[in-house]
Amino acid sequence: xxxxxxxxxxxxxxxxxxxxxxxxxxxxxxxxxxxxxxxxxxxxxxxxxxxxxxxxxxxxxxxxxxxxxxxxxxxxxxxxxxxxxxxxxxxxxxxxxxxxxxxxxxxxxxxxxx
Length: 114
Description:
By secondary structure, the protein is an alpha+beta fold. The protein is 39% helix and 16% strand. The chain has a 4-stranded mixed β-sheet.
């Protein structure tokens, strides 16, 4: 099953959703601001993305600038920050099996769907 962590207010996220709809494949939409991932789920997503937690942080968000900019946190602390403030999680994230991409640009979805 394909899963997209989606924010309907984000144009890139809406583009990714359109791409998935046009693929004809079944997928599940998780509006991560309303239903944030658990710590374990977020750790699994980061593992599938094969990135450091800091690379999943949206550094232009107000909450980042006001609370985290210039701070050196460890991986667990960055994950805790995303759990506390889901708006910090980069979007859209598309997951298929053991693979995941941050679908920026949207074409990255094809990397995991084949």
